[in-house]
Design a protein that fits this description.
Elements (H helix, E strand, L loop, with lengths): L2 E5 L6 H4 L2 H5 L1 H4 L5 E3 L5 E3 L9 H5 L5 E5 L10 E2 L6 E3 L9 E5 L6 H9 L16 H7 L4 H10 L5 E4 L6 H4 L4 H8 L5 H7 L15 H13 L5 E5 L7 H16 L5 E5 L3 H7 L2 E8 L3 E4 L3 E2 H10 L1 E2 L4 E2 L20 E12 L2 E11 L2 E6 L6 H9 L6 E5 L4 E4 L10 H4 L1 H6 L1 H5 L17 H14 L4 E5 L7 H17 L3 E5 L3 H7 L2 E8 L3 E9 H12 L3 E3 L6 E3 L5 H9 L5
Parallel strand pairs: 6-12, 7-10, 7-11, 8-9, 9-10, 17-24, 18-22, 18-23, 20-21, 21-22
Antiparallel strand pairs: 1-4, 2-3, 5-6, 11-12, 11-13, 14-15, 16-17, 16-19, 23-24, 25-26
Helix pairs in contact: 6-7, 9-11, 12-13, 20-21
């Protein structure tokens, strides 16, 4: 059994803990140097001397140390290791020509590292930290006899050309100054600028400076810049973040088309929206391990089977259980008909912002209900939430009901406030309900601007729920979160609202997330940037049928996991559901 020791350098603080791990280590106390102060005065652990007692990991006040016994079946060195006591990646995903292959796993499990190795941005060191940089021949020799050998040989020989869309598209304006048109014509190697711009809906803002477009527009520009390159392997790292569900469907079809056009093109995708991953890909690799410590890439599975295995948490072939409990889905069509107390209602809401107008005729909130909100970008969802929160006043109409509101906005503060200060109420009142399941203790002594997007999201959700309120408003709480975090947070919000007899309104573009937590649905219709209409709340069935009709898709339930899945357009099941008027069941 291989044992590894991982130290999170950003969390390790020997000054504040007074070198506690070094004082407690039994090997150190026997006058051997198992734990010492290494580079940048951080803890450094000798993995040969370490006996795996776990005292240092259990007693570290900053949860900076992990001592891990790797699976017995893993009898190999890592593909890549990020420094002494750093993260390790085992195995690589495999592109398949003519197919779209997805990569499914938690944040911090090595997905981006794996893609960076395949794209040539990172040269693997195979766990040998004395190697400055491996050359292509060394990489090919290491993978001798495997699919990876053939892949890297083809890259070396120029038979595989790679185009890579990175995860952080918000970095593009920091590195490029000019219009969208200028950027795309500059990278266009196919002479397909007009075609791609039309296909991805970019024509409206082609002459806008790249720094002035929205996150969703920036994402589509990044996808366009990637596919305009002459390549036969396209790699997309989170291609649907910032996009609404209609745009996600459109982008999914486009990405599928890259591979299905011929068997000479392969596509690799990392995607956290499980419905979209299912719709977009033919195969998936499951990545499991421990966040920020190590990641293992499974053998490829067909998409349906792979997603169900991921939800179940058990890899039969590897005999690995990577989750304590399976993630299960309720039958959302069994409507809760119990009457609960009305806490608020709206009547005749109307407001105008520039050229955009929003109308909400009437509706009400009742206690112990989670109301999901669906609709395109630019159709007034955030505006309506701000009206409910009292941040924006409507031109006409009124919100009736004397209630207290807690509001988590779409864009989260990146201030220097200490996390423990922000979470004061949550720590005192809801440790078991919020702090522990969201794993927030490790962030207490950090500032908000030191956290990643997903970490800030979890902190903001806990802070919002911990406030004393009747109505909790959350705008895109699944943003920056991985699949598992989204489903965990959906369950936390739902249980919190029911157990504490509160009400929540949740705006989100991940249909599985909305399906997993909502009792009722608000549907926004209209024309983006021109007019929006608030309809509902409906039952989940009525609301989803109306919304799916609008975006021209139908959904079924997976027979094994009961999760929602998008039907292939014009398939037998799609036609049957449309004929019966049941686009969601």
């Amino acid at each position: 059994m291989t044992r590894i020791a991982v130290v999170k350098k950003d969390d390790c603080n020997p000054i504040k803990c007074q070198e506690l791990c070094m004082k407690l280590c039994p090997i150190n106390r026997a006058d051997e140097d198992c734990i010492v102060l290494g580079l940048h005065k951080k803890a450094q652990i000798d993995e040969i001397l370490c006996t795996g007692c776990g005292i240092c990991a259990n007693r570290c006040p900053f949860e900076a140390i992990s001592i891990i016994n790797l699976p017995q079946a893993l009898n190999e060195e890592p593909i890549h290791q990020h420094g002494i006591n750093g993260f390790r990646l085992y195995n690589l995903p495999t592109p398949i020509f003519g197919k779209v292959v997805g990569i499914l796993g938690k944040n911090g499990i090595g997905k981006t590292t794996a893609l960076s190795i395949l794209s040539g941005m990172i040269k693997p060191n195979f766990g040998d930290l004395s190697i400055q940089e491996t050359n292509t021949d060394q990489i090919i020799e290491h993978f001798k006899g495997s699919e990876a050998q053939r892949y890297f040989e083809a890259v070396r020989d120029g038979k595989i050309n790679i185009a890579y869309k990175p995860q952080n598209v918000d970095q593009i304006p920091k590195n490029y100054n000019g219009t969208v048109r200028d950027l795309l014509t500059k990278v266009d190697q196919k002479g397909a600028f007009e075609e791609v711009s039309n296909d991805l809906g970019l024509t409206r803002f082609l002459d806008t400076n790249i720094s002035k477009i929205s996150g969703g527009e920036l994402q589509r520009v990044a996808i366009a810049a990637t596919v305009l390159k002459k390549a036969n392997l396209y790699i997309f790292d989170e291609p649907t973040s910032y996009l609404d569900i209609k745009q996600r469907i459109k982008v999914s079809k486009y990405i599928r088309g890259l591979a299905s056009a011929d068997d000479q093109t392969a596509v690799l995708v990392v995607e956290h929206d499980l419905i979209i991953l299912d719709y977009m890909t033919d195969f998936v690799h499951i990545m499991y391990g421990k966040e920020a410590c190590y990641g293992i890439v499974s053998q490829p599975k067909t998409t349906r089977v792979g997603i169900n295995i991921y939800l179940g948490g058990y890899l039969k072939e590897e005999n690995i259980r990577f989750r304590d409990k399976p993630i299960t889905f309720d039958n959302r069509l069994i409507e809760d008909k119990s009457e609960t107390e009305e806490i608020s209602r709206w009547e005749g809401i109307s407001t105008k912002l520039g050229n955009f107008s929003l109308e909400a005729k009437e509706g009400r909130f009742t206690r112990q209900k989670v109301v999901g909100v669906v609709g395109e970008n630019g159709i007034g969802k955030t505006t309506f939430v701000k009206i409910l929160a009292g941040v924006t006043k409507p031109d006409l109409g009124d919100i009736k009901g004397d209630i207290k509101v807690s509001y988590k906005p779409q864009y989260i503060d990146e201030s220097e406030q200490l996390v423990a200060t922000l979470l004061g109420d949550a720590i005192q009142k809801y440790n078991a309900q919020l702090i522990e399941p969201l794993k927030l203790k490790q962030f207490f002594y950090k500032k908000l601007n030191q956290l990643s997007g997903g970490e800030r999201q979890r902190v903001a959700i806990a802070a919002a729920l911990a406030k004393d309120a009747d109505l909790y408003l959350m705008d895109e709480p699944s943003a920056y979160l991985d699949v598992e975090q989204r489903l965990i947070i959906a369950r936390i919000i739902r249980d919190f609202i029911i157990n504490n007899e509160r009400t929540a309104l949740i705006v989100d573009h991940d249909l599985m997330f909305i399906d997993y937590l909502s009792h009722n649905l608000l549907v926004f219709a209209g024309t983006p940037a021109i007019e929006g209409h608030v309809n509902g709340p409906y039952t989940m069935e009525d609301g989803m049928n109306q919304f799916l009709e609008e975006i021209a898709i139908s959904c079924r339930r997976d027979e094994e996991s009961n999760r929602p899945r998008i039907n292939k357009p014009n398939s037998q099941l799609d036609r049957e559901q449309r004929d019966n008027g049941k686009l969601y069941y």
